[in-house]
Amino acid sequence: QDRVEQPSGEMTANKGDPVTLHCNYSTSATNVYIYWYKQLPNRSPTFMLSVFSFGKGTTVDEFKDRFFPTLNSKSTTVQLMIKNLHVSDSAVYYCALQPTVT
Questions:
Q1: Cα-flanking dihedrals φ and ψ of residue 42, to 5°?
Q2: Does the keyword Signal apply (predicted)?
């Protein structure tokens, strides 16, 4: 059964700090597609970036400078590092799994 889990929960950090968000997934698929979304209060989630176990993902322009994903297929984990934290980064972040078998 495919599943995704974000163990970090709520995090607090200071402006300018680096922060790493964590995501664990489970799937039997050979190629894994992970998508990250940002949700501001009273807004719908918006797509930020994607990372794949094979091939290259995409990142929306506004996130290219400070948001860096890493996918580790062996440990089935994904990390999203945010460099130089801004106040505007305060939000709920979601990772989503879309597995495909090739």
A1: 60, 25
A2: yes
Q: How many residues does the chain have?
A: 102
Q: How many domains does the chain have?
A: 1
Instruction: Provide the domain limits for residue 13.
Output: 3-100
Cβ–Cβ < 8 Å for 82, 21: yes
Cα separation, 8 vs 11, whole angstroms: 7
pLDDT tens-place string over residues 2-52: 899 998 788 999 999 999 999 999 998 888 999 999 999 999 999 999 999
**Contact 18/78 with Cβ under 8 angstroms?**
no
Retrieve residue 87's tokens.
Answer: 């106040």
User: 49: which DSSP letter?
Assistant: E
Structure tokens at 63: 């996130």
pTM of the predicted structure, to 2 decimals: 0.91
Beta carbons of 20 and 89 less than 8 angstroms apart = no
